[in-house]
């Protein structure tokens, strides 16, 4: 992952240093398990625990000769040991170490992402409560429809992110797994108790059955979930982008002192953070395809998945960490303009209340079709002449014969549309 989109925690997790350290952690845990089973003497285990180390530069040199990274690693580690080196990698195959260590690093990455998700959820909740009753236009097809509140938009995001977190927790549990079952997963040369010990020590789930590798449908589900979370962020960011347009200008990404919006136009304030989120979401979705294609391997294993995963696992977790962190800052510092929201409600001359007028007419006994046909020509006249819809309603003898001035006044009161906001908030779990 390029530095521009990499935050320090993920950079450390996916570093070569941490890769080799996680491999060593697995190797030592395997030897500890063998010791408990009576194979490895206490003295040999103690020597391994105290002296085993690695040198990334030496591993790179050896890999250039062996063309096998795990062999290069085990040979380098062995050089730090005495006769006890015979127990390094005993009874296991490369993928026992690699897949289990990868599960360990994914667990570390998931801890970062889980914190990111919970931080964003808290920010959305705070903003949803703050703007709970901030009235604004609801739009369908990009066209003004009926009143809503900015808080209700945020409440939808809150609900969506809660679903994302549920999906994340499920898929993360899938990949936070290990397997120490040998060359084709039969435990032929290793006791199942070794796998149980190693996974328990490292805080991983022991996969119930594996071939030489962990099943890759686990990782496909995980990548798809990360991409779906990124798509949720794109959904939220697209709304901000739309509401920041000059013609609407109901919200705006905070513009810092000294910030520049354009090299050519000094007046520009662009939603660049939200646009960044949208672009990265496209990249995230692109990582799903290799994850799905990695599910199908030849027989008990091949390594066609390996090269792809060296890219897509670090890239997806690193990108999502960056996206969650950046979008949280965007939303936390978002400038919101309630007065502009109210002003925009008036630009259609009251047409947004047409359904209320129609329903009131229906309540007097008029058929739906008759009420619709009575109201619609007035909406067309209001729009074409850019005149008050309410005044046209008040001047219509067919309507005033059925609706009193109080009825008409009530039909044009936006508070009616917000009377169930508290109910919706309770359903979403957004009580103050």
From TrEMBL:
It comes from the Bacteria. It catalyses: N(6)-(1,2-dicarboxyethyl)-AMP = fumarate + AMP; (2S)-2-[5-amino-1-(5-phospho-beta-D-ribosyl)imidazole-4-carboxamido]succinate = 5-amino-1-(5-phospho-beta-D-ribosyl)imidazole-4-carboxamide + fumarate. Pathway: Purine metabolism; IMP biosynthesis via de novo pathway; 5-amino-1-(5-phospho-D-ribosyl)imidazole-4-carboxamide from 5-amino-1-(5-phospho-D-ribosyl)imidazole-4-carboxylate: step 2/2; Purine metabolism; AMP biosynthesis via de novo pathway; AMP from IMP: step 2/2. One of its GO terms (molecular function) is lyase activity. SMART domains: ADSL_C. Keywords: Lyase, Purine biosynthesis. CDD domains: Adenylsuccinate_lyase_1 (cd01360). Residues 349-429 form the Adenylosuccinate lyase C-terminal domain. The keyword Lyase applies. Its EC number is 4.3.2.2. Belongs to the lyase 1 family. Adenylosuccinate lyase subfamily. This is Adenylosuccinate lyase. It comes from Fructilactobacillus myrtifloralis.
